[in-house]
C-alpha cells in the first residue's frame, strides 16, 4: 500500500512537473516510395522510426549519428517542417504533432526556431541583413517599426556583428558570419528552443569554435533550450548535457554525456566512439578500435530484429529476431540492446 | 637520405583581371620514401593548390607555377612537358580526391576504369589488366570483386567508391600517393575503415603518402610528419609526436585548442579571432599577425622566415631566440 502511494505520488509529481519543455513520444516519419506509371506507393523509407525522449528547459540535447540515420529528419519533424507519420510531440504542454498550420503559427512557431547546416543556402541572397532579420517579426506581426529597428541592433550586438553591416547582402559575408546571421534570425522572435541541424559542420575548426562559444553564451544569457544535431561526436560532447545516439531512425542509447562518453553501453555507441580519430595527447593511451564491417543498411528495408545486428560484433540469434526494447538500464541511461 | 619529393620555394599564383592571387607562396616540403606526411590547414590555406601543383593539374590560365622546383626523384616536375607528365601522373604519382562521387566516371564500369589505367601505364593486355583489376579490388577489401568490375559507380556507397578510387590509384604501384581530404565526405565508422586501408597499403607497397586534411585527429592517426599551412605558406613543420606534444606556432596552438575533446570536458573552446584573409588581401608582415594573440610590432612590419629548430621548423618571431641557443 505504502509502496503504491509513493509510486503514485512520484508519478503525479512527474506529470505535473513542468521542467520538461519538450516531450517526444514514439515519433515516426516515413517517406513513401512511389513507383510506376501511376506513382503508387510501393514501400516506405523509415527515416525516423519511434523516437522517445524528453528535453528539460535550459538544457542541450545532442543527437548524433552517421549520415542516413534520420537525425536531420528528426529535427525537421520536431519543428513540423515535416508532418509526422505518427507519435506525439508535446511542447510546453501542448501536443503540436496534430495541430493545423494556423494554430501552429499562432501558438508555438515563434517559440521553436531552427538553425540550418548550410549558411550559404539558408539565407536569401537577394535580401539584406536587415530584411532577413526583420522578416520573422513582420510575419508574426510583432513590434512597431521603431522597435524592430532596435531589436535588430540588439540581435546584431548579441551575435557579435558590426551594426554598420545592416544593409549588406549574404554574399558579402564569410561562412562563419553567415552562420551568425542564421543564429540571429532564429533569435529574432525570442524563442524558448532552438533546433540546430549541423550548425558548425560546414565551418573551419577555428570558426567552428567561435560559433560554439557564441551558442553557449547565448544559452546562458537567454535561457535557451537546444536540440543540437551533429555527426561530430566531440562537438556534441562539448555542447550537450544529454546525448542520444541514432542508428537507422531509432535511438540506440540516450544518456547524460558523462555516462555516455565514459561508459558507452550499446555496441554501436562503442564502435562509433572508437572510430573517431583523436589528436594525440601525452599520457593518453591509444584506444582499441572497433572497426565495423560494411555499410549502413537501407532505411527502406531495415534489418529484422535489432536494426544494428547486421554490423554488430556481438550479435546473437535473438538479435536478428526480436526488436530490443528501449529500457532504462541505469538512472537516466536508456539503451536498446539485448545485452542488457 | 634523399627525399622522394622535394618542393623548393613553390609559388603558384592565379591571375584574375589585373590582380595576382598568391594561393601558394613559397612552400618548402620534403617527403621521404615510405613516409606519410600530412598537410594541414583551414580552407583557403593553399593546401589543395599545393597538391594540384605537384600533379601539374592547375588550370592554366588563370593559374601558373611562377617560381620554385618540384623535385621528384631528382626530376623537376614543374618544367616537364605535358607528355612526360602524363607518364608520371597515375603511374609514379597518383591522387585520390575528397569527393568519391564525382571522381569516378558514371558511364564506365568500375572494371573499365581500373583497366584503362593499367593498359595505358603498364602496357598490359586487356585480359591481364582485368585480372590485375580484380586482384586490386580484392586488396582493397571487396569480397565479390569479380562481379564488381561490371558494376557502375552509382551502385556503390561512398565508402565503397573511395575504396575503388584507392584501388585505381594503387594499381600502378605508385611511389607517391596524394590523398586530398580522402575521408572528409565519409562517416566516422567508414573513415576508420579507409584510414586503416591506407595505412596497410602504404606499408605493403612502401608508398609515400601526402595526406591533405583539416582534421587533426586524422593526422595524429596516420601521419609521420605534419606540415601546417596558413595563407599559402608553411608556418610549422614537425614530426607528429613533437607537434602534438608541443605545438610552437600560435596558429597551430589555436587550431589544436579549437577542437572539442572526446575525452575530457572543457568549459570553453579556445577560438582564434577573425577569419582567414582572402589571398588578395594578405596582411603585410607575418600573415597570421592580425589574428595572433602574441603579435607585436615586428610581426606587423617584417615577414618571419621558416626557421629550423632542431628537427622541426617554425615561422614565428617568438621562437627566434630558441634557435640561437641550439
Automatic annotation (TrEMBL), chain A:
Pfam families, alphabetized: ABC_tran, oligo_HPY
Annotated signal sequence range: none
SMART domains membership: AAA
Top-rank taxon, per record: Bacteria
Keyword Transport: yes
Any GO MF annotation of the entry: ATP hydrolysis activity
GO biological-process terms attached to the record: peptide transport; transmembrane transport
Presence of the UniProt keyword Acyltransferase in the record: no
UniProtKB keywords: ATP-binding, Nucleotide-binding, Transport
Domain ABC transporter: 22-273
NCBIfam families: oligo_HPY, PRK11308.1
Similarity remark: Belongs to the ABC transporter superfamily.
Name under which the protein is recorded: Dipeptide/oligopeptide/nickel ABC transporter ATP-binding protein
Taxonomic classification: Bacteria, Bacillati, Bacillota, Bacilli, Bacillales
TrEMBL record, chain B:
Keyword Coiled coil: no
GO cellular component labels: plasma membrane
SMART domains, sorted: AAA
Listed InterPro entries: AAA+_ATPase, ABC_Ni/Peptide_Import, ABC_transporter-like_ATP-bd, ABC_transporter-like_CS, Oligopep_ABC_C, P-loop_NTPase
Top-level lineage group: Bacteria
GO molecular function, one term: ATP binding
Pfam families cross-referenced by the UniProt entry: ABC_tran (PF00005), oligo_HPY (PF08352)
ABC transporter domain sequence ranges: 5-256
Biological process according to GO: peptide transport
Key word ATP-binding present: yes
Location in or out of the cell: Cell membrane
Major location category of this protein: membrane
Record keywords: ATP-binding, Cell membrane, Membrane, Nucleotide-binding, Transport
Membrane topology designation: Peripheral membrane protein
Family: Belongs to the ABC transporter superfamily.
Protein name (record): Peptide ABC transporter ATP-binding protein
Organism: Cytobacillus solani
Lineage: Bacteria, Bacillati, Bacillota, Bacilli, Bacillales
Amino acid at each position: 500500500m505504502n509502496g503504491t502511494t509513493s509510486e503514485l505520488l512520484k508519478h503525479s509529481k512527474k506529470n505535473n512537473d513542468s521542467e520538461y519543455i519538450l516531450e517526444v513520444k514514439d515519433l515516426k516519419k516515413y517517406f513513401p516510395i512511389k513507383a510506376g506509371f501511376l506513382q503508387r506507393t510501393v514501400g516506405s523509407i523509415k527515416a525516423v522510426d519511434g523516437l522517445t525522449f524528453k528535453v528539460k528547459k535550459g538544457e542541450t540535447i545532442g543527437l548524433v549519428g552517421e549520415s542516413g540515420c534520420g537525425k536531420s529528419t528528426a529535427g525537421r519533424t520536431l519543428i513540423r517542417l515535416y508532418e509526422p507519420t505518427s507519435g506525439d510531440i508535446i511542447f510546453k504542454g501542448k501536443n503540436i504533432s496534430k495541430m493545423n498550420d494556423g494554430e501552429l503559427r499562432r501558438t508555438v512557431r515563434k517559440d521553436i526556431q531552427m538553425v540550418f547546416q548550410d549558411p550559404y543556402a539558408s539565407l536569401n541572397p537577394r535580401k539584406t541583413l536587415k530584411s532577413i532579420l526583420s522578416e520573422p517579426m513582420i510575419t508574426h506581426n510583432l513590434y512597431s517599426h521603431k522597435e524592430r529597428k532596435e531589436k535588430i541592433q540588439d540581435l546584431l550586438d548579441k551575435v557579435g556583428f558590426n551594426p554598420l553591416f545592416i544593409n549588406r547582402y549574404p554574399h558579402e559575408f564569410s561562412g562563419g558570419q553567415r552562420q551568425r546571421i542564421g543564429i540571429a534570425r532564429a533569435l529574432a522572435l525570442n524563442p524558448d528552443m532552438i533546433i540546430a541541424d549541423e550548425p558548425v559542420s560546414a565551418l573551419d575548426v577555428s570558426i567552428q569554435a567561435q560559433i560554439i562559444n557564441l551558442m553557449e553564451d547565448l544559452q546562458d544569457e537567454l535561457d535557451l533550450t537546444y536540440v543540437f544535431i551533429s555527426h561530430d561526436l566531440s562537438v556534441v560532447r562539448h555542447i550537450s548535457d544529454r546525448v542520444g545516439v541514432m542508428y537507422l531512425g531509432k535511438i540506440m542509447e540516450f544518456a547524460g554525456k558523462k555516462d555516455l562518453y565514459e561508459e558507452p553501453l550499446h555496441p554501436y555507441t562503442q564502435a562509433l566512439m572508437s572510430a573517431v580519430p583523436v589528436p594525440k595527447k601525452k599520457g593518453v593511451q591509444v584506444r582499441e578500435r572497433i572497426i565495423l564491417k560494411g555499410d549502413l543498411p537501407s532505411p527502406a528495408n531495415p534489418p529484422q530484429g535489432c536494426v544494428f545486428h547486421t554490423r554488430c560484433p556481438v550479435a546473437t540469434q535473438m538479435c536478428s529476431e526480436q526488436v530490443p526494447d528501449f529500457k532504462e538500464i541505469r538512472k537516466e541511461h536508456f539503451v536498446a540492446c539485448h545485452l542488457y | 637520405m634523399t627525399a622522394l619529393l622535394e618542393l623548393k620555394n613553390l609559388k603558384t599564383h592565379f591571375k584574375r583581371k589585373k590582380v595576382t592571387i598568391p594561393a601558394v607562396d613559397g612552400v618548402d616540403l620534403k617527403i621521404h620514401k615510405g613516409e606519410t606526411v600530412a598537410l594541414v590547414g583551414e580552407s583557403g590555406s593553399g593546401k589543395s593548390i599545393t597538391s594540384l601543383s605537384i600533379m601539374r593539374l592547375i588550370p592554366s590560365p588563370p593559374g601558373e607555377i611562377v617560381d620554385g622546383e618540384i623535385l621528384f626523384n631528382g626530376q623537376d616536375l614543374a618544367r616537364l612537358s605535358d607528355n612526360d607528365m602524363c607518364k608520371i601522373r597515375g603511374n609514379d604519382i597518383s591522387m585520390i580526391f575528397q569527393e568519391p562521387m564525382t571522381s569516378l566516371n558514371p558511364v564506365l564500369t568500375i572494371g573499365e576504369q581500373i583497366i584503362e589505367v593499367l593498359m595505358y601505364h603498364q602496357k598490359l593486355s586487356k585480359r591481364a589488366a582485368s585480372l590485375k583489376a580484380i586482384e586490386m579490388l580484392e586488396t582493397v577489401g571487396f569480397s565479390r570483386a569479380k562481379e564488381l568490375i561490371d558494376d557502375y559507380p552509382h551502385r556503390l556507397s561512398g565508402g565503397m567508391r573511395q575504396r575503388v578510387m584507392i584501388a585505381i590509384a594503387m594499381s600502378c604501384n605508385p611511389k607517391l600517393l596524394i590523398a586530398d581530404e580522402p575521408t572528409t565526405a565519409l562517416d566516422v565508422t567508414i573513415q576508420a575503415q579507409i584510414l586503416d586501408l591506407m595505412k596497410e597499403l602504404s606499408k605493403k607497397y612502401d608508398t609515400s603518402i601526402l595526406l591533405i586534411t583539416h582534421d587533426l585527429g586524422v593526422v595524429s592517426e596516420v601521419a609521420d610528419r605534419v606540415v601546417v599551412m596558413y595563407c599559402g605558406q608553411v608556418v610549422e613543420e614537425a614530426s607528429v609526436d613533437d607537434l602534438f606534444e608541443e605545438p610552437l606556432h600560435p596558429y597551430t596552438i589555436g587550431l589544436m585548442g579549437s577542437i572539442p575533446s572526446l575525452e575530457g570536458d572543457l568549459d570553453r573552446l579556445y577560438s582564434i579571432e577573425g577569419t582567414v584573409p582572402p589571398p588578395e588581401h594578405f596582411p603585410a608582415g607575418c600573415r597570421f599577425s592580425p589574428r595572433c594573440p602574441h603579435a607585436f610590432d615586428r610581426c606587423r612590419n617584417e615577414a618571419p622566415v621558416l626557421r629550423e629548430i632542431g628537427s622541426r621548423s617554425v615561422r614565428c618571431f617568438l621562437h627566434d631566440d630558441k634557435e640561437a641557443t641550439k
